[in-house]
Amino acid sequence: MHDITSIIKKIDSLKPIPQVANKIISIAENPESSLHELTQVITYDSAVTANLLKVANSAYFGRPAKFDSIHQAIVYLGMDLVVDLVLMASIADNLKPAQTGYGLGKGDLWKYSVLSALIARELAENKGMDKTHLIFTAALLKDIGKVILNQYVLDTFQEINTMVVKKYVTFREAEKQVIGIDHAELGGMVAESWNFSPKLVEIIQNHHQPQKSSISEVETSIVYLADTICMMMGVGGGLDGLAYRFHKEVIDILEFTDRDLHEVMAIFGEKLQHVESLAIMS
Question: Phi/psi at 104 (nearest 5 deg)?
């Protein structure tokens, strides 16, 4: 078992969320905020403006006419989606490197995180939920702990894999026993250090076991289900995806039918190439 304190200290090695992204999230979380306020904040940051226009004009959204101004893009996309896209660009640098300990090449974790977040957003909208950016953010960041644990997993992979095979535990459970902390728990600590809400922290910490989520069971279940759908589509699982535990009761809680899930998979199966292009742009 490793020194947990030294592992936690490595959170500081991650590239922090830019201040403008935190401002944008605060505006979105304030029910009295307006699109005008959001436009003002984005307009004064040239990098965010350029990236948002590039993503908004991407093939993923399939809009024939291009957006010429950031105001047009924000009005068309809506506040929640704009917040999602800004956050997506802000976290990209942390998730793009290869995570060899988890069997993920350069860009694999990032593409998987983007797909998972988009699917989670779709599921949340299907349930008629408000403020879907909370779920999008949790799905996008749920595996940020892997970035820190990657080297530790690489160094102890044989021990972790032996435990998975012989004791029939999940990769995450073996990770916890061998290293002393798992990527979900560590991911929650990252979200906490970045001053995200307690609800978001809880969703990330429990995204593999939503039944343990006390105040965010539905949101956590949606993030877990989006993760599961990605696995079913064969996207981004990595080595830990080979020992993944499926909780059918989660689908029962959300009241999704098999048809509902097949429709979501069909939608994103057709858009997968565009999702990958969207991830590359960020």
Answer: -115, 125
Q: How many domains are contained in the chain? A: 2
Backbone phi, then psi, for 43, in 5-degree steps?
-60, -35
Q: What is the dihedral of CA 66, 124, 194, 90, to 10 degrees?
A: -20
Q: Which of 80, 95, 110 is the last residue of a domain?
A: 95
Give the separation between CA 65 and CA 34, rounded to whole angstroms: 25
**Residue found by looking up tokens 């969320």 in the block:** 17
Q: What is the pLDDT of residues 212-268, one digit of tens each?
A: 766 678 899 999 999 989 888 888 767 776 656 677 777 788 888 888 989 999 988
Q: Residues 159-179: pLDDT tens digits?
A: 998 998 888 888 888 999 999
Residue among 232, 208, 233, 235 nearest 220 (CA):
208
Residue range of the domain that includes 41: 16-95
Do 63 and 160 lie in one domain? The reply is: no
Tracing tokens 């993760």 back to the chain, one arrives at 227
Dig out the tokens for 250 from the structure.
Answer: 């989660």
User: Is 139 within 8 Å of 117 (Cβ atoms)?
Assistant: yes
